[in-house]
Amino acid sequence: MPETPRFLTLADVAELLNTSSAQVYALVRRGELPAIKLGGRGQWRVEASRLEEFIQQLYKETEEFVSEHPFVDTETDSQ
Question: Which residue from 49, 53, 62, 75 has the fewest beta carbons nearer than 10 Å?
Answer without folding.
Answer: 75
